[in-house]
Every structure is written in structure tokens, then in C-alpha cells.
Amino acid sequence: MKILVLGSGGREHALVWRLAQGGNEVIAAPGNPGIEQLARCIPVALTDHAGIAALATSEAVDLVVVGPEAPLVAGLADELRAQGLLTFGPGKIGAQLEGSKAFSKQFFARHGIPTARFVVTSSVQEADAAVDAMGGAVVIKADGLAAGKGVVVATSAAEAKVAVREMLEAKRFGAAGGTVIVEEKIIGREVSVLAITDGKTLEVLPAVEDHKTIFDGDRGPNTGGMGTVSPAWTNTDILERITREILQPTVRGLHADGIDYRGVLYAGVMVDALGAPYLLEYNCRFGDPETQPIMARMKGDFAKLLAGAARGELPHGVLAWDARVAVCVVVAAAGYPGEVRTGDPIGGLDHTPADVLVFHAGTARKDGQLVTAGGRVLGVTALGVSVQQARERAYAVVDAIELSGKQARRDIGARR
Questions:
Q1: Which of 157, 265, 308, 413 is least enclosed, having the fewest CB within 10 Å?
Q2: Which fold has domain 325-400?
Q3: What are the beta bridge partners of residue 64?
Q4: How far apart are CA 388 and CA 335, in angstroms?
Q5: What average pLDDT does range 156-180 have in this prediction?
């Protein structure tokens, strides 16, 4: 197949790598220096919907895969489909599952999907009252897209109320924080479960565990993700409950609401001490850095699966999985997740072992030199017969990377 992948991050590099491994011709827009090694990159901005449609048409692609959430929330998939282009990714209404946490929480409640108690409000006073009513130790979420950073897990009422004011009054996340969700904190262990759907059936992918905070021991502010392990710590019973109680009711609910959803349902789930799953949130696209270990372990015809979902005819039984464990360690730039320093030279990648994948996320080329161009720079992904072996292989490459101010957690995969 000839496939156009939209995006420029680590997720897109991993998708392009897997699709290219399957013998497909891949084009990327705008792409990045890592993707350039695998695909033809064309500098079309993701905000240029007309330009993307023109590119897909002129190249006569068989399939368009939309990587990031922002163009999906902006309705790009609808526009491409309207021009007859086979497109993997939900339309604007379906993408509100990620684009608006208020929309998604109300969807969960309407369709009986287990989730934490919540209050949606744009009022500081109402938010404060909800914080007090839920006992203070709550989660404060910005309603809109905030690059994975619009969530504060508060340990006290005072901390929660500061977060409310940062969002509603100080406009820390701009319009995305104009409405907040005050949510009861579920105590347990988190897991990410991604499924591909054609709007009727599901293909559930292996579970992944993310490490959200910047520092070891799950300390410090939230990031977009500092590393992942797959398969995750979950067992068959837990995964069956997540499928039965969360994913399948979501597909039925979308259908009942008249939403034709063709893409990824990425469920962030908290599992309590009794093994009960609670849906924290949905993303409407592949995760980053969850995609990296999934792609590293995937076997089979990935392009066939994506194209089938886009057509509304999801094929089953086309994927298989490497028995080994995959660990992805994110290398971040100086300043991340705050004010990021860009333009720093990156070295030490020339002698990376063939069995370790280095996915580019925030990189660029300047005068022939690879440099940083974002907060999360690289996703070093290794396979191993055990978590420990995969960790050792990944960290050996992380340690060899030359980058001033380099940040990387040292405990990815160590929770097990």
C-alpha cells in the first residue's frame, strides 16, 4: 500500500517504521529526521487541511493515517473523507472524547462506563466546593487539549485549589483550561489499553504502562510520558474486564449517539486494589510513548488492519506479537516539561545496536547536525526476554547519547 502518515513525533516515527517493515511505501508530512530514513517527508503543516488533502490526492495514496490529536479534534479526518480519501482517525465529534474532558466524562456517565465521581465547572467557587466535598485529595483536569500536562493530581485541598486558580484565573492552559473537571482520586495502578475500532468491533492491543512524571519514583510534574513498558503488569482477568466494562460499552455508546468512530480508542485506566477498572480518560489516537513498544512487538499486516478499520470493515486475526518485553525510555531536553531549550546538538547515535530502536520525537537538522527541537527528544526502545534485559539494552543506548542537559528517568520498568 501507499500510505500517508501525518505528524512529526515519536509516535509517527514508530508507526512509519512498522508500516515500512510491512513492505508499504510510506510518505510522511511533515515528518522528522528519523522518519526521513524510512519515508519521503513533505513539509506540509498539520493545520493546512487543504494542503494535506491536495498532497494525499496528488500522491494517490491508499490510506491516510492521522497521528496527533489536534488535527483530529479540528476535523481533519472529516475533511479528508469528504474528498474520498480513506482515512484512519475519528471525525471531529468522536475526537471530542479527547478534545473535551467534560464531553468524555458526561459520555462515560451516560453509557454506564465506570469512572470516578466528577464535577464539571468554570467557576472557582463551584470547583472549591467540589474539592471540599470530595475530601481534598482530588484530580484537577483542564477540559481541553494541554499536551498531556493539563492534569494535577493533588495531595491536599490547598494544592487542588491552587491548581483550579492556575487554570481558571491565571489561564495557565489558555482556553483549554476555561472549564475544569474536579475528579475523585481513584487509588490503584494505572494502565493504558489501546484498541483499534471500525465503529462496530474492536482489536485490543497489548496493554502498556506509562511513567508520567519527570523524576524517578513518580515525583515531579506530569509530562507527556517519560517511558513505557509492554506488556504491562496486568493479567488476563483485568484485561477482559477492561474490554467488557469499558471498551465494548464505549463502542456501543458511540454507535447509540450516532458517532461513526474509525480509529484508536486509547483508554487510560486505573485498576483498584480489588481489580475493578475505572476509566480515567480517552485519547483519540495512538499514544506517545505507548506506540513505540507496541510497534516494536507487533507482527503481521498492520496496514491491512488500519485500512480495514478506516473502511468500516475491521479484519481480525491479522496481528501477532513478539513474546519478548519492550521497554521505551524517553530522552528529554533541558528544561522539560517547563521551558524547553532547543537547538542543542545530539550525538552518540552512530553505534546503536541493531536490536535497539531509537524513535525521533523532538529533533531537527540544522546545518547537517541533528539538534533538539522539542521537549521529548528520543524514545529508545529495546526488546528483551525479561523486563530487566530490555531495560539494560535501552539504558545502554540512553547512556551513550550525547546531549547537554539530557534528562531521562532511570526507573522505567522498575515498578514490576
A1: 157
A2: Glycinamide Ribonucleotide Synthetase; Chain A, domain 4 (3.90.600)
A3: 4, 87
A4: 29
A5: 91
Write the secondary structure of 402-414 as one string of H (helix), E (strand) and C (coil).
Answer: ECCCCECCCCCCC
Pairing of strands 2-7, 63-66: parallel
Q: Which residue(s) pair with 345 in the sheet?
A: 371
Residues 329 and 190: their CA atoms lie apart, in Å, by: 18
Strands 189-197 and 202-204: antiparallel
> Which DSSP letter does residue 243 get?
I
pLDDT in tens, 334-380: 999 999 999 999 999 998 998 899 999 999 999 999 999 999 999 99
Collect all residues with Cβ–Cβ distance below 8 Å to 103 and sequence separation of at least 6.
96, 97
3-class state of residue 191 by DSSP: strand
Assess if CATH 3.30.70.330 describes domain 117-184. no
At position 203, the amino acid (one-letter code) is E
The amino acid sitting at 382 is: A
> How far is residue 129's CA from residue 132's CA, in Å, rounded to a whole number?
5
DSSP state letter for 223: -
Domain boundaries, the chain: 2-93, 117-184, 189-321, 325-400
Chain length of the chain: 416
Q: Which cell goes with 156?
A: 491536599
pLDDT tens digits, one per residue of 190-244: 999 999 999 999 999 999 999 999 999 999 988 989 999 999 999 999 999 999 9
User: What is the pLDDT confidence band of residue 89, given thresholds at 50, 70 and 90?
Assistant: very high
User: 413 — phi, psi (to 5°)?
Assistant: 85, 0
Cβ atoms of 326 and 382 closer than 8 Å: yes
Cell (9 digits) for 239: 484485561
Beta bridge partners, 71, equal: none
156 phi, psi to nearest 5 deg? -155, 165
Regarding the domain delimited by 189-321, which CATH topology (the fold level of the hierarchy) does it fall under? D-amino Acid Aminotransferase; Chain A, domain 1 (3.30.470)
Q: Which of 272, 265, 92, 100 is nearest to 181 (CA)?
A: 100
Q: What is the CATH number of domain 2-93?
A: 3.40.50.20
66 Cβ contact partners less than 8 Å away, ≥ 6 residues apart: 6, 7, 72, 76, 77, 87, 88, 89, 263, 285
CA distance 348 to 128: 50
Cis peptide upstream of residue 337 (ω within 30 degrees of 0): yes
The amino acid present at 122, given as its one-letter code, is S
Q: What element of type H or E holds 204?
A: strand 202-204
| CA–CA gap between residue 381 and residue 293 (Å, rounded) | 7
